[in-house]
Amino acid sequence: MVTLSLLYSSGYLDYSSNFVPEGSFRMREEAIIWLQRVALNLLFALVTKKFDDGGGSRRGMVSLGCERGGIYRGLA
Hints:
Blueprint: H1 28-41, E1 46-52, E2 61-66
Antiparallel strand pairs: 1-2
């Protein structure tokens, strides 16, 4: 079973309410495809920010984010 956890902090636009699945995913790939579809409907693309395959007894983790993620700074 794949678990989704959403992180956000002040200074960022919060789209997390759009990323609440109706059920659970059996495989990581299913979750990533669902996340990408939601992101495309919001007109942005997801990219892999961090990846850890686990190793040993640790659990693997993938961190996805908006390709233009970050704090809006406006024009200088």
